[in-house]
Amino acid sequence: MTAALGAATVLALALLCLTVVPSHAALQVGFYRGKCNGTDVEATIKSIVAARFGRDRSIVPALLRLQFHDCFVRGCDASILLDGSGTEKTARPNLSVRGYDLIDQAKAALESKCPGVVSCADIIVVATRDAVVLGGGTQYTYAVQTGRRDGNISVASDATRNLPGDSFSAPQAIAAFRAKGLSASDMVLLLGGHTVGLTHCSFILNRLYNYNGSGKPDPAMDPAFVAMLKSRCPQTSTVDNTVLLDHGTPTTVDNSYYKQLLARRGVLKVDQNIASDSATNATVRALAGGSSSFPALFGGAMVRMGGIQVLTGTQGQIRKSCRVVKK
Ligand code: HEM
Fold first, then answer.
1. Is 24 a catalytic residue?
2. How confident is the model at residue 265 (pLDDT cuts 50, 70, 90)?
3. Confidence band (pLDDT; 50, 70, 90) for 2?
4. Can you spell out the DSSP letters for 259-311?
5. Among 1.10.10.10, 3.30.1330.10, 1.10.520.10, 3.40.190.10, what is the CATH number of 3-197+245-305?
6. Which atom of ligand 1 is nearest to the CA of 58?
Protein backbone atom coordinates (compact mmCIF):
# COMPACT_ATOMS: atom_id res chain seq x y z
CA MET A 1 0.00 0.00 0.00
CA THR A 2 1.34 3.46 -0.86
CA ALA A 3 1.63 6.08 1.85
CA ALA A 4 -1.12 8.14 0.20
CA LEU A 5 -3.47 5.19 -0.01
CA GLY A 6 -2.67 4.30 3.58
CA ALA A 7 -3.53 7.82 4.73
CA ALA A 8 -6.75 7.77 2.72
CA THR A 9 -7.77 4.45 4.24
CA VAL A 10 -7.09 5.72 7.73
CA LEU A 11 -9.11 8.84 7.03
CA ALA A 12 -11.99 6.77 5.68
CA LEU A 13 -11.77 4.59 8.76
CA ALA A 14 -11.81 7.63 11.01
CA LEU A 15 -14.92 8.99 9.30
CA LEU A 16 -16.59 5.61 9.48
CA CYS A 17 -15.87 5.38 13.19
CA LEU A 18 -17.15 8.88 13.82
CA THR A 19 -20.33 8.54 11.82
CA VAL A 20 -21.60 5.01 12.20
CA VAL A 21 -21.54 4.33 15.91
CA PRO A 22 -22.53 7.21 18.17
CA SER A 23 -21.30 7.22 21.72
CA HIS A 24 -23.90 6.89 24.44
CA ALA A 25 -26.21 9.90 24.59
CA ALA A 26 -27.14 9.66 28.29
CA LEU A 27 -23.52 9.89 29.37
CA GLN A 28 -21.60 13.16 29.38
CA VAL A 29 -18.05 14.38 29.58
CA GLY A 30 -17.33 15.80 33.03
CA PHE A 31 -20.45 14.40 34.76
CA TYR A 32 -18.81 14.70 38.20
CA ARG A 33 -17.70 18.31 37.82
CA GLY A 34 -18.87 20.20 40.92
CA LYS A 35 -20.44 17.08 42.47
CA CYS A 36 -17.78 15.96 44.97
CA ASN A 37 -17.48 18.65 47.62
CA GLY A 38 -14.71 20.48 45.78
CA THR A 39 -12.74 17.34 44.94
CA ASP A 40 -11.83 16.85 41.30
CA VAL A 41 -13.01 13.26 40.76
CA GLU A 42 -11.06 12.55 37.57
CA ALA A 43 -7.87 14.10 38.98
CA THR A 44 -8.19 11.91 42.09
CA ILE A 45 -8.44 8.77 39.98
CA LYS A 46 -5.61 9.91 37.74
CA SER A 47 -3.20 10.43 40.62
CA ILE A 48 -3.92 6.93 41.94
CA VAL A 49 -3.34 5.36 38.52
CA ALA A 50 -0.15 7.41 38.03
CA ALA A 51 1.24 6.31 41.39
CA ARG A 52 0.59 2.67 40.54
CA PHE A 53 2.03 3.03 37.05
CA GLY A 54 5.20 4.40 38.62
CA ARG A 55 5.67 1.09 40.45
CA ASP A 56 4.06 -1.27 37.97
CA ARG A 57 3.51 -0.56 34.30
CA SER A 58 1.41 -3.70 33.99
CA ILE A 59 -1.50 -1.74 35.41
CA VAL A 60 -2.06 -0.58 31.82
CA PRO A 61 -2.95 -4.00 30.38
CA ALA A 62 -4.71 -4.92 33.61
CA LEU A 63 -7.16 -2.02 33.34
CA LEU A 64 -7.65 -2.27 29.58
CA ARG A 65 -8.73 -5.86 29.92
CA LEU A 66 -10.83 -5.08 33.00
CA GLN A 67 -12.83 -2.49 31.09
CA PHE A 68 -13.34 -4.82 28.13
CA HIS A 69 -14.50 -7.68 30.34
CA ASP A 70 -16.80 -5.37 32.28
CA CYS A 71 -18.40 -3.71 29.27
CA PHE A 72 -19.02 -6.93 27.32
CA VAL A 73 -20.96 -8.56 30.13
CA ARG A 74 -24.22 -6.80 31.10
CA GLY A 75 -22.69 -3.54 29.84
CA CYS A 76 -20.26 -1.19 31.59
CA ASP A 77 -21.89 -1.55 34.99
CA ALA A 78 -19.00 -2.79 37.15
CA SER A 79 -20.68 -6.21 37.41
CA ILE A 80 -17.22 -7.76 37.05
CA LEU A 81 -16.19 -6.24 40.39
CA LEU A 82 -18.78 -7.99 42.55
CA ASP A 83 -17.43 -10.65 44.90
CA GLY A 84 -19.22 -13.89 45.70
CA SER A 85 -19.59 -17.44 44.55
CA GLY A 86 -20.71 -17.70 40.96
CA THR A 87 -20.14 -14.03 40.10
CA GLU A 88 -18.52 -12.91 36.82
CA LYS A 89 -15.05 -12.77 38.28
CA THR A 90 -15.20 -16.52 38.97
CA ALA A 91 -15.81 -17.32 35.27
CA ARG A 92 -12.85 -18.92 33.50
CA PRO A 93 -12.04 -16.04 31.11
CA ASN A 94 -11.96 -13.69 34.10
CA LEU A 95 -9.63 -15.70 36.33
CA SER A 96 -6.58 -13.79 35.09
CA VAL A 97 -8.26 -10.36 35.10
CA ARG A 98 -6.40 -7.94 37.37
CA GLY A 99 -6.67 -4.41 38.68
CA TYR A 100 -9.47 -4.86 41.21
CA ASP A 101 -7.34 -3.45 44.03
CA LEU A 102 -6.68 -0.23 42.16
CA ILE A 103 -10.41 0.30 41.63
CA ASP A 104 -10.93 -0.33 45.38
CA GLN A 105 -8.27 2.23 46.18
CA ALA A 106 -9.84 4.89 43.96
CA LYS A 107 -13.30 4.12 45.30
CA ALA A 108 -12.11 4.46 48.91
CA ALA A 109 -10.43 7.78 48.13
CA LEU A 110 -13.61 9.12 46.52
CA GLU A 111 -15.98 7.75 49.16
CA SER A 112 -13.97 9.64 51.77
CA LYS A 113 -14.55 12.90 49.85
CA CYS A 114 -18.11 12.45 48.58
CA PRO A 115 -19.85 9.26 49.71
CA GLY A 116 -22.30 7.63 47.33
CA VAL A 117 -21.53 9.87 44.35
CA VAL A 118 -19.02 8.20 42.02
CA SER A 119 -19.92 4.85 40.46
CA CYS A 120 -17.51 1.95 40.25
CA ALA A 121 -18.43 1.64 36.58
CA ASP A 122 -17.13 5.17 35.92
CA ILE A 123 -13.99 4.57 37.96
CA ILE A 124 -13.09 1.65 35.67
CA VAL A 125 -13.51 3.76 32.54
CA VAL A 126 -11.68 6.83 33.84
CA ALA A 127 -8.82 4.79 35.32
CA THR A 128 -8.43 2.85 32.06
CA ARG A 129 -8.19 6.08 30.05
CA ASP A 130 -5.54 7.38 32.45
CA ALA A 131 -3.59 4.13 32.14
CA VAL A 132 -3.75 4.26 28.33
CA VAL A 133 -2.33 7.80 28.35
CA LEU A 134 0.46 6.78 30.71
CA GLY A 135 1.23 3.77 28.54
CA GLY A 136 1.07 5.58 25.23
CA GLY A 137 1.70 9.27 25.79
CA THR A 138 -0.48 12.38 25.75
CA GLN A 139 -1.56 11.84 22.15
CA TYR A 140 -3.68 9.00 23.56
CA THR A 141 -5.74 11.39 25.71
CA TYR A 142 -9.46 11.02 25.10
CA ALA A 143 -12.37 12.62 26.88
CA VAL A 144 -14.24 9.94 28.77
CA GLN A 145 -17.93 10.16 29.24
CA THR A 146 -19.25 9.55 32.74
CA GLY A 147 -22.59 9.23 34.52
CA ARG A 148 -22.77 5.42 34.61
CA ARG A 149 -24.44 3.65 37.53
CA ASP A 150 -23.49 0.30 39.01
CA GLY A 151 -25.41 -2.89 38.30
CA ASN A 152 -26.75 -5.27 40.94
CA ILE A 153 -26.35 -8.54 39.10
CA SER A 154 -23.23 -10.58 38.34
CA VAL A 155 -23.44 -14.13 37.01
CA ALA A 156 -20.47 -16.20 35.82
CA SER A 157 -22.32 -17.77 32.89
CA ASP A 158 -23.01 -14.29 31.44
CA ALA A 159 -19.25 -13.78 31.20
CA THR A 160 -18.63 -17.14 29.56
CA ARG A 161 -21.41 -16.50 27.06
CA ASN A 162 -20.52 -12.92 26.11
CA LEU A 163 -16.73 -12.81 26.04
CA PRO A 164 -15.24 -13.76 22.65
CA GLY A 165 -13.00 -16.83 22.49
CA ASP A 166 -9.25 -16.63 21.88
CA SER A 167 -9.53 -18.72 18.72
CA PHE A 168 -12.51 -16.93 17.21
CA SER A 169 -12.47 -16.42 13.46
CA ALA A 170 -12.70 -12.81 12.31
CA PRO A 171 -16.42 -13.22 11.39
CA GLN A 172 -17.12 -14.69 14.83
CA ALA A 173 -15.29 -11.83 16.53
CA ILE A 174 -17.09 -9.26 14.36
CA ALA A 175 -20.42 -10.85 15.35
CA ALA A 176 -19.51 -10.69 19.04
CA PHE A 177 -18.70 -6.98 18.77
CA ARG A 178 -21.76 -6.25 16.60
CA ALA A 179 -23.89 -7.84 19.32
CA LYS A 180 -22.60 -5.04 21.56
CA GLY A 181 -23.30 -2.32 19.00
CA LEU A 182 -19.68 -2.03 17.86
CA SER A 183 -18.55 -2.13 14.25
CA ALA A 184 -15.93 -4.36 12.61
CA SER A 185 -13.49 -1.41 12.58
CA ASP A 186 -14.12 -0.85 16.27
CA MET A 187 -13.31 -4.52 16.82
CA VAL A 188 -9.99 -4.19 14.98
CA LEU A 189 -9.18 -0.97 16.86
CA LEU A 190 -10.07 -2.44 20.25
CA LEU A 191 -8.08 -5.60 19.68
CA GLY A 192 -5.24 -3.09 19.48
CA GLY A 193 -5.48 -3.31 23.28
CA HIS A 194 -3.22 -6.33 22.76
CA THR A 195 -0.44 -3.79 22.21
CA VAL A 196 0.39 -4.40 25.88
CA GLY A 197 0.19 -7.27 28.32
CA LEU A 198 0.54 -11.00 28.40
CA THR A 199 -1.14 -14.24 27.62
CA HIS A 200 -0.59 -17.65 29.14
CA CYS A 201 1.03 -20.46 27.17
CA SER A 202 -2.09 -22.58 27.65
CA PHE A 203 -3.89 -20.32 25.16
CA ILE A 204 -1.37 -20.97 22.39
CA LEU A 205 0.05 -24.48 22.93
CA ASN A 206 -2.20 -25.82 20.23
CA ARG A 207 -0.92 -23.19 17.76
CA LEU A 208 2.66 -24.08 18.58
CA TYR A 209 2.54 -27.87 18.60
CA ASN A 210 -0.62 -29.36 17.19
CA TYR A 211 -2.62 -26.91 15.18
CA ASN A 212 -6.05 -28.36 14.36
CA GLY A 213 -4.74 -31.83 15.18
CA SER A 214 -2.03 -31.60 12.48
CA GLY A 215 0.84 -32.35 14.86
CA LYS A 216 2.45 -29.18 13.45
CA PRO A 217 2.44 -25.47 14.26
CA ASP A 218 -0.11 -23.07 12.83
CA PRO A 219 1.15 -22.27 9.30
CA ALA A 220 -0.15 -18.71 9.71
CA MET A 221 2.67 -18.06 12.18
CA ASP A 222 6.20 -17.01 11.26
CA PRO A 223 8.36 -20.15 11.88
CA ALA A 224 11.05 -18.15 13.69
CA PHE A 225 8.36 -16.75 15.97
CA VAL A 226 7.04 -20.27 16.60
CA ALA A 227 10.52 -21.36 17.63
CA MET A 228 10.88 -18.43 20.01
CA LEU A 229 7.47 -19.02 21.60
CA LYS A 230 8.17 -22.75 21.94
CA SER A 231 11.20 -22.02 24.07
CA ARG A 232 8.99 -19.95 26.34
CA CYS A 233 6.16 -22.50 26.27
CA PRO A 234 7.59 -26.05 26.35
CA GLN A 235 4.98 -28.62 25.39
CA THR A 236 5.45 -30.66 28.54
CA SER A 237 5.86 -27.81 30.99
CA THR A 238 3.89 -28.13 34.19
CA VAL A 239 4.00 -24.36 34.66
CA ASP A 240 1.73 -22.12 32.60
CA ASN A 241 4.28 -19.47 31.57
CA THR A 242 3.31 -16.13 30.10
CA VAL A 243 4.24 -14.60 26.75
CA LEU A 244 3.99 -11.03 25.55
CA LEU A 245 1.09 -10.15 23.29
CA ASP A 246 3.07 -7.51 21.34
CA HIS A 247 6.63 -8.57 20.72
CA GLY A 248 7.47 -5.24 19.08
CA THR A 249 6.95 -2.77 21.93
CA PRO A 250 5.43 -4.92 24.69
CA THR A 251 4.79 -2.28 27.34
CA THR A 252 3.96 0.74 25.18
CA VAL A 253 0.51 1.58 23.88
CA ASP A 254 1.05 2.11 20.14
CA ASN A 255 0.21 0.59 16.75
CA SER A 256 3.04 -1.95 16.84
CA TYR A 257 0.52 -4.77 17.44
CA TYR A 258 -0.77 -4.36 13.87
CA LYS A 259 2.76 -4.41 12.45
CA GLN A 260 3.37 -7.65 14.32
CA LEU A 261 0.22 -9.16 12.82
CA LEU A 262 1.42 -8.31 9.31
CA ALA A 263 4.74 -10.00 10.16
CA ARG A 264 2.72 -13.12 11.16
CA ARG A 265 3.67 -12.61 14.78
CA GLY A 266 0.16 -12.47 16.20
CA VAL A 267 0.14 -14.42 19.46
CA LEU A 268 -3.49 -15.45 19.89
CA LYS A 269 -5.28 -17.09 16.99
CA VAL A 270 -7.90 -14.32 16.99
CA ASP A 271 -5.14 -11.72 16.58
CA GLN A 272 -3.70 -13.41 13.51
CA ASN A 273 -7.17 -14.02 12.10
CA ILE A 274 -7.98 -10.33 11.80
CA ALA A 275 -4.85 -9.81 9.70
CA SER A 276 -5.76 -12.52 7.21
CA ASP A 277 -9.53 -12.15 6.89
CA SER A 278 -10.72 -10.09 3.94
CA ALA A 279 -13.24 -8.23 6.14
CA THR A 280 -10.57 -6.84 8.47
CA ASN A 281 -7.25 -7.04 6.63
CA ALA A 282 -7.45 -3.54 5.09
CA THR A 283 -8.09 -1.99 8.50
CA VAL A 284 -5.18 -3.88 10.04
CA ARG A 285 -2.91 -2.65 7.27
CA ALA A 286 -4.10 0.92 7.54
CA LEU A 287 -3.51 0.92 11.29
CA ALA A 288 -0.09 -0.68 10.93
CA GLY A 289 0.85 2.27 8.74
CA GLY A 290 -1.03 4.84 10.79
CA SER A 291 1.03 5.52 13.88
CA SER A 292 -0.21 9.11 14.04
CA SER A 293 -3.90 8.36 13.52
CA PHE A 294 -4.11 5.31 15.79
CA PRO A 295 -4.19 7.22 19.12
CA ALA A 296 -7.36 9.21 18.37
CA LEU A 297 -9.04 6.26 16.64
CA PHE A 298 -8.29 3.97 19.57
CA GLY A 299 -9.62 6.56 22.04
CA GLY A 300 -12.83 6.90 20.02
CA ALA A 301 -13.35 3.14 20.05
CA MET A 302 -12.69 3.01 23.81
CA VAL A 303 -15.37 5.68 24.32
CA ARG A 304 -17.84 3.69 22.23
CA MET A 305 -17.02 0.50 24.15
CA GLY A 306 -17.60 2.52 27.34
CA GLY A 307 -21.14 3.25 26.16
CA ILE A 308 -22.28 -0.39 25.95
CA GLN A 309 -25.61 -0.97 27.75
CA VAL A 310 -24.87 1.58 30.45
CA LEU A 311 -27.16 2.22 33.39
CA THR A 312 -27.82 5.93 33.92
CA GLY A 313 -30.17 8.26 35.80
CA THR A 314 -31.97 6.32 38.51
CA GLN A 315 -31.11 2.87 37.15
CA GLY A 316 -28.90 0.59 39.24
CA GLN A 317 -27.14 2.16 42.20
CA ILE A 318 -23.92 3.78 43.38
CA ARG A 319 -22.17 1.10 45.43
CA LYS A 320 -20.37 1.86 48.66
CA SER A 321 -17.81 -0.88 48.09
CA CYS A 322 -17.20 -1.89 44.49
CA ARG A 323 -17.24 -5.54 45.59
CA VAL A 324 -20.69 -5.57 47.17
CA VAL A 325 -24.21 -4.57 46.12
CA LYS A 326 -25.56 -1.92 48.51
CA LYS A 327 -28.62 -3.17 50.38
C1 HEM B 1 -12.01 -10.90 20.22
C2 HEM B 1 -11.71 -10.21 21.29
C3 HEM B 1 -10.70 -10.60 22.31
C4 HEM B 1 -10.25 -11.83 22.69
C5 HEM B 1 -10.67 -13.19 22.17
C6 HEM B 1 -9.27 -11.64 23.72
C7 HEM B 1 -8.59 -12.64 24.38
C8 HEM B 1 -7.59 -12.46 25.29
C9 HEM B 1 -6.85 -13.51 25.94
C10 HEM B 1 -7.08 -15.01 25.73
C11 HEM B 1 -5.92 -12.93 26.73
C12 HEM B 1 -4.89 -13.64 27.61
C13 HEM B 1 -5.46 -14.00 28.95
C14 HEM B 1 -4.54 -14.84 29.78
O15 HEM B 1 -3.58 -15.43 29.29
O16 HEM B 1 -4.75 -14.94 30.98
C17 HEM B 1 -6.07 -11.51 26.60
C18 HEM B 1 -5.28 -10.59 27.25
C19 HEM B 1 -5.49 -9.24 27.14
N20 HEM B 1 -6.51 -8.60 26.49
FE21 HEM B 1 -7.78 -9.44 25.17
N22 HEM B 1 -9.13 -10.30 23.94
C23 HEM B 1 -9.98 -9.64 23.12
C24 HEM B 1 -10.18 -8.28 23.05
C25 HEM B 1 -9.59 -7.37 23.88
C26 HEM B 1 -9.95 -5.98 23.97
C27 HEM B 1 -11.10 -5.34 23.20
C28 HEM B 1 -9.12 -5.42 24.87
C29 HEM B 1 -9.06 -4.00 25.36
C30 HEM B 1 -9.40 -2.95 24.65
C31 HEM B 1 -8.22 -6.45 25.33
C32 HEM B 1 -7.17 -6.26 26.20
C33 HEM B 1 -6.35 -7.26 26.66
C34 HEM B 1 -5.15 -7.01 27.42
C35 HEM B 1 -4.59 -5.66 27.76
C36 HEM B 1 -4.62 -8.26 27.76
C37 HEM B 1 -3.39 -8.53 28.62
C38 HEM B 1 -3.81 -8.60 30.07
C39 HEM B 1 -2.68 -8.67 31.07
O40 HEM B 1 -1.51 -8.60 30.71
O41 HEM B 1 -3.00 -8.81 32.27
N42 HEM B 1 -8.56 -7.63 24.74
N43 HEM B 1 -7.09 -11.25 25.72
1. no
2. very high
3. very low
4. HHHHTT--SSHHHHHHHHSTTTHHHHHHHHT-TTTHHHHHHHHHHHHTTTT-B
5. 1.10.520.10
6. 40
